[in-house]
Amino acid sequence: MSVNENRTAAIAEIRSVIEDWASAMREKDAGRVLAHGTEDCLVYSLAPPLKETAAGAEGLEQWFSTWKGPLGYRFQELEISAGGDVAFATALTHLSGEKLDGEKAALWFRQTLGLRRTERGWKIAHQHESVPFYMDGSFKAAIDLEPTSDVDWQAPSPPPMAGVIAYLGVQDANATAEFYGRAFGAKEVDRKYAEDGKRLIHCHLTINGGALMLSDPFPEYGCPWKPQEGVVLHLVVDDADFWWKRAVAAGAEVTMPLAVAFWGDYYGQLRDPFGVLWAIVAPVKKN
């Protein structure tokens, strides 16, 4: 068999391996996904940390468990190059699905796979995923791009956010953001991790149409944690009872029962598990 014929046969075999690997991703079959990798497969994924070795199925199964039903996972512009016992493949990959909370997710990202020929056939030895960042100073991941997207680099940056925005230093920003999602319907806009891959340098949430920022303490940079004092975050809403019951059910502590206050508003205060006071407020409806 000629060199070109060997290369063509190898590329066909590699394509079959990648297609079955993608099929296993769609079916959320962690064991089958990992069976296509080497034992020391190095993974540079979209999620923290900066790098990891895909040594077990536990982390992958945990991630799969956050999705309802099968995943959408497909390639566009899959290109494969092979020579001898090594090969690499590049593609634009589309991930889509429905999270357990009903949120629909879909994004394109760039993917490179490095493969080695082993006694058990071609195996994925390196997996690299990435998304570009907007270079306007926001460092926002460009997850809204599609293969046909054109980026206007001369377009103006988004306008500044209005009003005064609370920026909280909390002991566990990840846990705080998750709690605010359950208690106050918070939606995440952006997050940035520190070099340790655990603490958050920045987390941008929206709650009731407004922005709230969070970060972990960084005592090594002169930003230690301090208890929250003298601050109350106000949520002015239409249905105070709904917001109140949801927050209490999530674990917020009642510090002032919801009632008609002497100044005329329907008002109550709660303390979240991280020591932050919240007020839920609604105008009293007049008959």
TrEMBL record:
It comes from the Bacteria. Transmembrane segments: none annotated. Residues 161-283 form the VOC domain. This is Nuclear transport factor 2 family protein. The lineage of its organism: Bacteria, Pseudomonadati, Pseudomonadota, Alphaproteobacteria, Hyphomicrobiales.
